[in-house]
Automatic annotation (TrEMBL):
It holds the Pfam family K-box. It is found in: Nucleus. The keyword Nucleus applies. Residues 84-174 form the K-box domain. InterPro entries: MADS-box/MEF2_TF, MEF2-like_N, TF_Kbox, TF_MADSbox, TF_MADSbox_sf. One of its GO terms (cellular component) is nucleus. Keywords: Coiled coil, DNA-binding, Nucleus, Transcription, Transcription regulation. Residues 77-104 form a coiled coil. One of its GO terms (molecular function) is DNA-binding transcription factor activity. Its main location: nucleus. Transmembrane segments: none annotated. This is Floral homeotic protein DEFICIENS. Residues 1-61 form the MADS-box domain.
Amino acid sequence: MGRGKIEIKKIENATNRQVTYSKRRNGIFKKAQELTVLCDAKVSLIMFSSSSKLHEFLSPNISTKDFFDLYQKTTGIDLWSSRYEKMQENYRRLKEINKKLRRDFRQRMGGDLDDLNIKELQDLEAKMNSSLVAIRERKYHVIKTQTDTHKKKVRNLEQRHANLVLNLETKLEHHDGIVEGEGYYNEPAHGTSSLYALRLYQNHHPYLDLRLVD
């Protein structure tokens, strides 16, 4: 029973398409190798899969450059000159772009203005005004961000300070006396209430100054 005829069209299933490519690629390479041996032919095959993976076959004893040189000699097409001309054209284009950018930079710095007409000067002024607006917006954004960060730090420090003061006052309310000099000062036995004033000094070396107010 013979194999069924395969319709020549794109295989939609990606897995089947890859399997078919691999099998037929190997078959083509085998035929190319047979041609090289049987007929002493110079064969070059370059193939790219749908995923742009390169596969190539080249007859022994000939390099890729030699093969293209032989192709140019036979067809009369100078591949390298064409490539060189394209590279030169690209170089000239990039050189012109660089020249314009340098001139634009000098003009923004106040130079090379003598050859500009009124319309070109107006366009340059508009560009500089637009750039100035963008710079100012960025500057104000940076200032606002720094200010908000500073305010947040100040609020955090104030909150920490308030919590410390509250904790100290709470501890003093439950203490029988305060340290004065080298001894202790006890509260009066007659039930007279005493007011403790707390003053917090903050400098390079913060310290507490506790005083008794009658």
